[in-house]
Each structure stands twice: as structure tokens, then as C-alpha cells.
Design brief:
Residues 17-196 form the Alpha-N-acetylglucosaminidase C-terminal domain. InterPro entries: NAGLU (IPR007781), NAGLU_C (IPR024732). There is one protein chain. The protein is mainly α. It contains seven helices and no strands. α1 (2-43) runs antiparallel to α2 and α3 runs antiparallel to α4.
Length: 206
């Protein structure tokens, strides 16, 4: 009886993992389209279009983070905690956490205004990483797109890179704690996001 219960529980957990993963993939494709829409609006000097499409993108990133939080297989917290558990001192714990954060974002060979070529080498769709890093990183890029159109002085590439690298360095050095247990209902959250974004994407507008 006990092995059968374990088997059933395992099937249930895999089912919810697959549901979250499938919804994530569909939303990621939609996010790609929103990003392309933002860039296209910028190329057309459409300030309103850039503001509108970029805001939709950032809202979607927040919602995807909420989805990923519904299953422990999509959490940032366990990755960081497992790294810290290998440490034998507080100094090692700090270093190992920094290593873990660096592996999934930008490697250390960057300057103040030049990003490492080894960036997003181990990128993940994990709750905590989207809301804590990818969303703010995208927001910086969109901010410079908007400022470029508002001021009419071109895209300030070096300034953008400088803020991007600074954000990354700060996130890698931070010690904030991320959940190691899932929260939320995978089925209801997936239904909500399907109705909001995927049932008829052309009508999604805020």
C-alpha cells in the first residue's frame, strides 16, 4: 500500500510540474512577441507603443513568476540554499551563494560598462529569478528606449550597459532569502493566465 501511495503522489507531482512547464513555455513565446513589439515600436519612433508594449511585458514577467512559484521544481530558493549548505564557514557560505547566483546570471569577467560574454550561460525559468532579476533587467532596457524617444538623442548604449552590470553585481552580492517551498495552486493559476494572455492574445490590453 505504501509504495502505491508514493507512486500516486509522484504521478501527481509530475502532472503539476508538466502543467506549469507547458504554461511557462506558452507564456515565454508570448513574452518574446511582446518584446519584439516593443522593439518594433521603438524603430517606428512610437513612444506610446514602447511604453504600452513594455509594460505588458513586465506585467507578464511578474505573472510568470507567480506561476513558477506553484511548483518546487521551478524555485530559485533550493538552488541557493543547496549551495550554502556546502559551506563550512560564514565566509564560505557567502562565497558559495555568490557563485550560485553568478552561474545563472552574468559571470565575473565584466567591467563597469561591458557585460561579460558569459551571460545567461545557465539562465533558468525560476520563481524569484524572474521577479528579482530578469524583470528589473528588462525594465532598465525599456527605460533607456523610452528616454531615447523622449529626448531624441539616441540610445545611450554605454549608460544602459553600466546600469545593467550594476544591477547584476548588486543582485549577485545580495543575501536575500528566496522560498524553498512552493505556494499557490498550479491548476487555477494556469487557467487564470491562459484566460488572461492566451485565450485571445490580440484582445489582451490594459
Amino acid at each position: 500500500m505504501i509504495p502505491m501511495i508514493i507512486l500516486i503522489c509522484g504521478i501527481q507531482l509530475q502532472k503539476w510540474y508538466d502543467l506549469v512547464d507547458l504554461t511557462r513555455q506558452a507564456l515565454a513565446k508570448y513574452a518574446n512577441q511582446l518584446f519584439l513589439n516593443t522593439v518594433e515600436a521603438y524603430q517606428l519612433d512610437d513612444l506610446h507603443g514602447v511604453a504600452h508594449q513594455s509594460q505588458k511585458f513586465l506585467e507578464l514577467v511578474e505573472d510568470m513568476d507567480t506561476l513558477l512559484a506553484c511548483h518546487h521544481g521551478f524555485l530559485l530558493g533550493p538552488w541557493l540554499e543547496s549551495a550554502k549548505q556546502l559551506a563550512q564557514s560564514e565566509e564560505q557560505k557567502k562565497q558559495f551563494e555568490w557563485n550560485a547566483r553568478t552561474q545563472i546570471t552574468m559571470w565575473f569577467d565584466n567591467s563597469d560598462d561591458e557585460a561579460s560574454l558569459l551571460r545567461d550561460y545557465g539562465n533558468k525559468y525560476w520563481s524569484g529569478l524572474l521577479r528579482g532579476y530578469y524583470g528589473p533587467r528588462a525594465a532598465i532596457y525599456f527605460k533607456f528606449l523610452l528616454e531615447s524617444l523622449e529626448k531624441g538623442d539616441g540610445f545611450r548604449l554605454k549608460d544602459w550597459r553600466r546600469e545593467w552590470v550594476k544591477l547584476t553585481n548588486n543582485w549577485q552580492s545580495s543575501r536575500n532569502i528566496y522560498p524553498v517551498e512552493s505556494i499557490g495552486d498550479a491548476l487555477n493559476t494556469s487557467k487564470w493566465l491562459y484566460n488572461k494572455y492566451l485565450r485571445d492574445p490580440d484582445t489582451y490590453d490594459h
